[in-house]
Amino acid sequence: MGRLIVIEGLDGSGKRTLTQALAARWQADGRTVATLAFPRYGLDVHADLVQDALYGRLGDLSDSIYGPAVLFALDRRAAAGQIRDLRQAHDVLLLDRYVTSNAAYGSARLGGPDRPTDFPAWVRALEIDRFGVPAPDHQILLATSVELAGQRARNRADQDQDRALDRFEADDGLQRRTAAMYRRLAEQDYLSPWTVLTPDSDGSFSLPAAVVG
Question: How many other CB atoms are there within 10 angstroms of residue 207's CB atom?
């Protein structure tokens, strides 16, 4: 069975770019690689519903913390069989976001690392234990600064009207608390061991042996 590796970080942190770089590196080494990205907008009704909520199209649902979290979790539950099949068929399955994103954003909405919460444990119980979503083997946190990630997200939104900032992305305070929660969860080895990558001066990431080996 292949390894399940997850890349986590803020919107605009470089997850998609690193996903492509890692996949190309492993394929050049002769390994088979599959990739998935969450939420699966346009592919799963739960993801589409939470997207509607984040753009204010479902009334006050976006005011809830647990409601959107359940929809994000149901998106992954619906993909659990595909995840298992891809792990069986490939050496590496590389995911752009996964369960930890739910724990990080929900905890940040509850106040962040300065306010103790059992939300990460609740997410784990829901997604891993109850829904049977496969646990990751390793997670990579892109520790891009909140300022750089936010600027990238805004630039992307300016260039593509289909990628306008949603309610989470437009909230700078939430993004800062989420970045801090990601750090906390990585320090705690939430769900798996972690590697934290800090960007080089040009905003790109070097690939240490611990990640690509």
Answer: 15
pTM of the model: 0.91
Cα separation of 132 and 81, whole Å? 10
Judge whether residue 159 has pLDDT over 80: no
Express each pLDDT in 103-131 by its tens digit. Answer: 999 999 999 888 889 999 999 999 999 99
Number of compact structural domains in the chain:
1
Q: How many CB atoms lie within 10 A of CB 88?
A: 10
CATH number at residue 207: 3.40.50.300
Q: Is residue 122 part of a domain?
A: yes
Q: Which domain holds residue 111?
A: 3-40+80-212
Which are the contacts of 140, defined by CB distance < 8 A and separation ≥ 6? 5, 6, 7, 8, 18, 194, 195, 196, 197, 211
Helices (H) and strands (E) in the chain, counts: 8, 5
